[in-house]
Each structure stands twice: as C-alpha cells, then as structure tokens.
Amino acid sequence: MSAKNLRFGLFLGLFLICSVAVHGIDLWPMPKSVSHGSKTLYVSREFGLYMEGSNYSDGLGILKGAFERMVDLVEASHVIDGNSSGSGVLSGVNVVVHSPEDSTFSQLCSFNFVTRVVELRSAPWTISDLPRFPYRGLLIDTSRHYLPVRIIKGVIDAMTFSKLNVLHWHIVDTQSFPIEIPSYPRLWNGAYSYSERYTMADAVDIVQYAEKRGVNVLAEIDVPGHALSWGVGYPSLWPSASCQEPLDISNEFTFKVIDGILSDFSKVFKFKFVHLGGDEVDTSCWTITPHVKAWLNQHHMNESDGYRYFVLRAQKIAISHGYDVINWEETFNNFGNKLSPRTVVHNWLGGGVAQRVVAAGLRCIVSNQDKWYLDHLDAKWEGFYMNEPLTNISKPEQQKLVIGGEVCMWGEHIDASDIEQTIWPRAAAAAERLWSPLDKLASDPKQVTARLARFRCLLNQRGVAAAPLAGLGRAAPSEPGSCIKQ
Amino acid sequence: MSAKNLRFGLFLGLFLICSVAVHGIDLWPMPKSVSHGSKTLYVSREFGLYMEGSNYSDGLGILKGAFERMVDLVEASHVIDGNSSGSGVLSGVNVVVHSPEDSTFSQLCSFNFVTRVVELRSAPWTISDLPRFPYRGLLIDTSRHYLPVRIIKGVIDAMTFSKLNVLHWHIVDTQSFPIEIPSYPRLWNGAYSYSERYTMADAVDIVQYAEKRGVNVLAEIDVPGHALSWGVGYPSLWPSASCQEPLDISNEFTFKVIDGILSDFSKVFKFKFVHLGGDEVDTSCWTITPHVKAWLNQHHMNESDGYRYFVLRAQKIAISHGYDVINWEETFNNFGNKLSPRTVVHNWLGGGVAQRVVAAGLRCIVSNQDKWYLDHLDAKWEGFYMNEPLTNISKPEQQKLVIGGEVCMWGEHIDASDIEQTIWPRAAAAAERLWSPLDKLASDPKQVTARLARFRCLLNQRGVAAAPLAGLGRAAPSEPGSCIKQ
C-alpha cells in the first residue's frame, strides 16, 4: 500500500440538488480542480458511504475507517439536534478513491447554527485531485525527547488533515536509544529511562495506525555520526570510553549491529525507504583512537575514505534487506558519485542542492533548514509556503527526480508539551506547496493568509493545538480576538 | 450529584496476593492514607469492576464509565501482548466509592517491559481518601479567545487526573459573547464570528461530559463591568453608543436580560452556584451619560451606591432561580455587609482576603493572582504548591467557610494552541494543596519535585501537553533530556 500511496491521489464526486446558498472555495490544501454549484445539502444523520465504481480494494477497511473518521470530524464541532429530514438531504457520498482520504469532504461541511444540522454548501461539488509530489514528509525526533505513543498518533492524525503522507521517524540519536531491537536487546539500555521506551509492538502499532490513514513511516538510524547512545548497551561500538562517536569503523560488530537493526526494521517498517542519516560526521575520534587509526592505516584510508566506506557499507546492508536508501546531503556533497543509484539524497543545509542532485541523476527530498526546519521559530509560515522544491530545475526528467519535500521537527526543545503548536500551522503551509498544482499556488502568501487562518481554526476545532499565524513559530496570541484573524 | 461531589471523596481497597516487587508511593495528589505491601499483580485482560459493598448508586453509569476510562488509561501507554495468565493475576478491582474517580488506581499500574503486561506493584494497597477542600476549581475564559468544545472537554479530562472538580466557565466578557441565550437570541451577535459560538445544546453536552467525570461546571456572567459585548445585539444595554460599559443601570431592560440569562442558565447549569462577577467596575460611563446620571440623582445614588445596587439586584435575581452566588472580592471589599449571606466571595487581588471574609461570616474561594493565576507565566509551580488557603485562619468554624480555591486561566493570550501547557503541571501543584491533608503536604516544594515531574510525564503519556517543571510557565524544554528530569 505504501508505494501506492506515493503514486495516486483521489477523485471525489458529489452530485445532488437542493435549496440555495453560496460561498467560496475554502479548502486546504487546494485541490487540482474544483467546481461547485450554489445549492445547500443537509447531511443526513444516516449519512452513508457508497463505493459504486470504486476500483479500490478495501480489504483492510481503510476507506471505511477513513469515512467513519470523516463523519466524526464533520459532526464533532457542535451538537447536531436539528431536523434534517425532507428534500435536500445529503444521504451519502459516492466516492471513487485510490488512497485513504478523509480531509477534503469534511472541510466542505459546516454546522448551520439556525437549522442545527451539518450542511454542504455550494453543491454540487466536482473535485478532481492528485498530489504534485508523491513524498510529503514531516520529521519527528524521539531521541532528544521521548514522545509517548499517543502523542505520535496525534501527529499522524493532524498530518492527514493537510495531506502529508510520510512520517519520518528519527528514532535514535546521540542522546537516547528508545526503541527495542530484538536482535540486540541491550541497545535500548540507551533509553532515557525505564518508561521512555518503545517496544517493537509499539512500532507495529504506530506503523499500522499510520498506514490506515495513508501515512508511511520512514524509520531512520543516523550512522555513523549520531549514534553515541548505541554504546550504552554495547560499549564496544564506541571507539573508546572517552571518545564515543562516530561508531567504531574498525569493529566488525558495528556492522553486525547495523545489519541486525535493519533486519528487525524490515519486519516492521514496510515503507520502501529507510533513512541511514550520514550527516555531521566528526571523524576525530577515529584518528585519535589508536586501534581505529591503525585499522584505517592498514586499509590505506584517511578519515574521509573511512566516512565514505562506512556510509556505502551501511547502504549495501539496507539494500540487502530490500530497502531503497535515503541519506542526508553531506554524503552526496562528499562522494555523490559513489552512492548507490537507489539513493535518495535528503537536502537540509540550504537551497540549491536539489538541482545538483538531480543533475547527477539521483532522487532528492528538499528540507532546506532556512525555510523548512520547524525548530527554527524565526522561520515563518510565509517562508514555508513559498519554498519551491523545483527552483532552477526545468527538465521534466529531472523534475521527476525531486520526489518531494519534508518539514523537520527536531526535538532539542520539543516534547509532548509543545510539539503540536510548533508543527502547526507552518507544516500545513508547506503541505499545500507539496500537494497543489503549481498554477494553483499563490505567488504572494498574502493571498492565502485568510484561508490558512481558517484552516488553522479548523485544526483547533479538531483538537489540534495549531498556533496563530502571526508572529514567530508557536507564538501565543498577542491579544484577545477571533481565531480567524490571528 | 454536584453537591454530593462537593462533600464526599473515595475509598478504594485492593486485596490480592502475588510475586514480589517493591517501589515507593508515586501518586498525585497524595491520598489521605495509603499503605501497601510488596507483591506484584498482573492486570488481567478481562479486568473487571466489582461493586460489592458499594453504597453508590450508579444509575447514570458514571462509575462504569469512569472504570472504562481508567482501564483505557492503564492500557494506553504500550501494546500489551504479554501473557498474564496463571497465578498473581489481578482480575478485578473491588471499589467502594462515593464519587466518580478514575485517577488513583490508574496511577498505581505500570507497563512491565519484560513481561509486556500491566502490573500493579507493591500490592496489596489500602487507600483511604477524602479531599481537604470541597471546591477545587480551574477557570477558563472563552470570551478573550473562543475555545472549541473538543478543547474544553480535553481540559475536563485533564482536571480529573489531578482531582480538580469545578470548571469555572468565564463564558462572556467585554470582548465577545459566544453562547446562545434562547431568551435573548441576539446576545450571541456579540460572538467573534459565525462559527465561534456555543449552542445551548453544546453547553448541555459540556455539563453532562463534566458531570460524568465528577466535575461541576460553574457558569459566570461578569456584571456590570465586563459586559460590553452584550450590547452588540442589544445596544440599549450600553449607557450610550460611545460609552459602552458598565451595563446601563438605569434601564429596566438590563435586569430583564440578566433574569433571562439566569433563567436559561438554570435549565442547563445545575451546579448549586452561579458566578456573577462584579470586579473592576469603572462607573465613569454612568456619570458622563446624561440619562444615567439623571437616574442616579433621581434615586439619590452616587456611583458607588449604583455599583452596590446593581450587584445586590443581580444577586436577588440569581437567588430567585435557586442559585447560591459567587462574586469577585471587590463586592466584599466595597459593601461586604450588604451581600446576601448566601454569597461566596471569590478572592483574586492578593493574599489575606480569606481571613477577613470568613471573619465576616461569609464563604470564600481563594485565587490570589500572585500565586494562582496561570496567565502569570512568572508564577512558578512551587508558588502554586505552597499557596495555603487557610493562612491565618485558625478557628475551625471559620476554616469551614473557606470552601476551597481555584487556579485561573485567563484568556487574553490563551487559545486552543497553548491552553494545555499553560495550565499543566502548575494547576496540578495547586490541586495537591487543595486535595491532600495538611500533614501530607510538603513544607518544602523540593520534596515533591520528582513526584510532580513523574506526574507531568504521566500527563504527557495520556496526551495532555503538560509543560516541563523547570523555568517559567509553559517553558519549552531547555535542552535534550528525560521527561522526568525536566
């Protein structure tokens, strides 16, 4: 299903007739094509799902679940105690769908405070939709701060509202190793505490929860540079007790452990990609630690040879488990021509990288930190919206190699208390850039401020702690006022 | 039920035997008396509720609902896929209860990462519990910023975890009038926007949701000073178009509207108290508006006479609808001897007020802003914990008149995006002060820092965005680290 999610969008059609009302198109992100009439339909309490003509096999009950969640969203904002019988009742929706989708239709429905029923205004609607980029990601970081399973599920729920479809789970890093690895059970000795851990069953639960909602989970281990916590359970993975990262390149056990982790991952994380990191590698521990330095000399490698050797060997292991590999851009910047052709290069340092990556014939994901790092509170929603992944990439065959983009919620100052309002609504601004056709995107963010503000209020109504648009990231409202004006 | 909640606590007993384990008492707030053994019980997947000996009528299914939520909390943190069969299985809990309660037992249970089942350690437990103060409140403000129904329900859920039992709903104020008043339907023309409103059915939904969880909803209209938004729908409630508050004391219609609101309230808000505000009344509009000034002269009143007249007349109206009245302390400070004996004086300006109020024979609620205002981000949890409502009140009959305290989450800079982490964990620190016996309270907050930190992590695990203890209110974590150390 994962691969399918990356390829297909959605077609939703509604055809019914009723009494009059008109309003504008208030959807986020903006679909590929929308047309509507001027009628108002009342959503029946026995609202049903019809799938005539659908070629989507719903064996997993994915569409049914999505439909039930959609109805819940439609009905959640206020108590519906009006009478919706009689003509003009919308008794169901006939959907032809290629991927689970519960966001568009629910945004079209609104509570009528006079009739006390939910209505679909400006009907009939004809919406044809398809994502511009197949990969629309959000990174979370459970190493700098542990995120409870319930919080991660909340992030996934909110992702679906703006059609983000890849949860990049930066699971482990220097600070902690929270996840269980059955092949090497002492690895999670590197967790912060007894309770700040995930079992493999928790990981399966998260992956299935996401899959049901059309979200793929991309697992990352960041080697060799961001892996100090691995040595808490297995100290021989450290060059020495006093110099603890990068991982000891001279120790065969290091690669055995990587193989064990990726073998265990392949049973749980079914997405076609795995992320191997490879960024910010300071190799000084290798040269000041005698047995590592000796191993490098013996193999006629300098530090940068060693870095390349490590990354490429890790890639081979991942590929042997059936994965395509994603690496941070330093690997491309240092030895791009040596990377596996199955590599996707993950940009983060700045702009202008994607055009070099695709010119080299590799795929690329755009996350330039100046625009798409959510932990940069001075990066405002306007910059998230305007950041164009295809800048200076004109050839169609090169454009295809940019599979999408990702906004990154690094966890140094993020935990369960502030993750939602640091992510939203800025991530939603990037989500429209990644979903909507170029000709539907505003050339000036001012043109979409009001629509995004209304979408932010909708997120609040759905229980998502999305912050005001005004000010820095996650800024508190500066004064009393209406949600839609802040 | 409301009144009963205010009087009774809970007795919970568990008597079973099993394999060995020991740990300390890790409950928040600390119960009246706790004793435990050194056994470990495994919670059966068919965990059941037994009510032998209960004298609690559960006609509303309140206890059953509370029990189901408790089991959900117990099982929510991790996937339970271990085998809990055999001896030492905790197959149920025998509860004798006088009020709905789902917090204590769930805090005793924890997930065992080895056996993969939920266990109750240090059993058997004998817990006898009873709140120190009957009124343990939290104020929310839906006038400065609208709070969606789902967000309010989330606040109620979190209140139950630390045994707060009164949601003080400051519904309307100068800035907006979000709630429907059937008797005067144009009042909610004062709402911020079409969708930022509550129907009466929404209010009923919120009250019933709270009642099922042992939380009373205290409704407030803040007259005459904080009522400008009333005039949007009925301009004659303003002294003039250019001088719009306090409400026009010279207009009989003003009191008709107050009567209509309280009449409608009495059908929905079944708590024994209603809050009539009465704070921060600037009467200058009365004296500079000719027809109001003429009315005052005609009735031989100066401004302060008018203020007293208004408050006392509003009290009579509330009492005529069966309510006891709560007023902010300025009413007591200005004409305490004239207030109805059924008045509860709500302190907020500073300390030392309660002792004067109870000396005058009136009841009091403590909310001194320097310690218990949550919107004061420089008010730290230690101050919330140490704020003693009975300071300088030694006579038992006077102590009884302090019915409790309340922490206040004023909404000028609070909306759905930041309310949870601004409330928690500071409100929980006050909750222990209001719940636990004096001899169980720490004389130095340092003695409870670790326990409160663990409770904050538990809130996170339950999906509540409780902030780190360190730093100002709702501060982001200052660096990577374990939840229990921040």
TrEMBL record, chains A, B:
Enzyme class: hydrolase
Catalysed transformations (reactions): Hydrolysis of terminal non-reducing N-acetyl-D-hexosamine residues in N-acetyl-beta-D-hexosaminides
UniProt keyword terms in alphabetical order: Glycoprotein, Glycosidase, Hydrolase, Signal
Cited SUPFAM superfamilies: (Trans)glycosidases (SSF51445), beta-N-acetylhexosaminidase-like domain (SSF55545)
Record-linked Pfam families: Glyco_hydro_20
Coiled coil stretches, renumbered: none
GO cellular component, one term: membrane
GO molecular function per UniProt: beta-N-acetylhexosaminidase activity
GO biological process, one term: carbohydrate metabolic process
InterPro entries tied to this protein: Beta_hexosaminidase_sua/sub, GH, Glyco_hydro_20_cat, Hex-like_dom2
Catalytic site: E280 (proton donor)
The enzyme's E.C. designation: 3.2.1.52
Keyword flag Glycoprotein: yes
Domain Glycoside hydrolase family 20 catalytic as annotated: residue spans: 133-437
Family membership noted in the UniProt record: Belongs to the glycosyl hydrolase 20 family.
Name used for this protein in its record: Beta-hexosaminidase
The organism's taxonomic lineage, starting at the top: Eukaryota, Viridiplantae, Streptophyta, Embryophyta, Tracheophyta
